[in-house]
Design goal:
single chain, about 220 residues, 6 strands
């Protein structure tokens, strides 16, 4: 007679209890991490990928998988390390270095497995990664009258809608003011990268930071 195979015993109560406690502990750690990250100061120039939820929701949903970074064909996105400028392991980009190329459809968003980057039906022109503004008017050649520069205007993928060159004498003696329509600007950052000033006159701020500073239109 062939030897009988020993019957597998169902997990004991202690084992099940241990697993439940471990899962609870992991959930608690994740919750504490997200809570702590929400209190971190966010670099105002570090921009989230297109479609990102508001910061608190984004931190709760993002699992730090890096798939959005891998999906970006322009190498715009990077993952933050322990030194910042945003929560470690989360994606961001800096407009002055490599702006968003405004891909449509949006590959980084489609690669996200958790919804941290919103609905996959997003049109790139509806994205709000940040908000551009003439935050250093003293560096703008057109605003100070040093030259009739419109590099930011020409670089904008929504030229004439997101950025216009408003005519009129400025307080620094120029004749044109780069003016941003905050309801249209996607925060892609092309204007900031194109600015010919050594320290860009027009900059893109993370959306919540821009709203706090009131950066929606160029200064008069």
């Amino acid at each position: 007679m062939a030897p009988t195979q020993p019957r597998s015993r169902p997990p004991g109560r202690r084992r099940l209890l241990g697993c439940a406690l471990a899962l609870t502990a992991l959930g608690g750690v994740a919750w504490q991490r997200t809570r702590a990250e929400r209190r971190l100061g966010t670099d105002r120039r570090a921009l989230r990928p297109p479609g990102a939820l508001a910061e608190a929701g984004f931190l709760a949903a993002c699992v730090r998988c890096g798939l959005c970074v891998q999906a970006c064909p322009w190498r715009t996105l990077r993952l933050a390390d322990g030194a910042g400028p945003v929560a470690a392991g989360t994606p961001y980009f800096r407009a002055r270095e490599v702006p968003c190329a405004m891909c449509d459809p949006v590959p980084c968003q489609r690669a996200c497995p958790t919804g941290a980057l919103g609905h996959r039906s997003l049109r790139i022109t509806d994205a709000r990664m940040g908000l551009a503004g003439l935050n250093r008017p003293e560096a703008c050649y057109s605003f100070i009258g040093a030259a009739a520069c419109n590099s930011c205007f020409k670089a904008c993928p929504l030229r004439g809608r997101a950025i216009t060159m408003r005519q009129g004498v400025t307080r620094l003696g120029g004749r044109f003011t780069p003016t941003v329509d905050g309801t249209v600007c996607t925060g892609c950052g092309r204007c900031e990268q194109a600015c010919i000033a050594e320290q860009p006159a027009i900059t893109v701020l993370a959306l919540q930071q821009a709203e706090r500073s009131g950066s929606r239109d160029g200064p008069a």
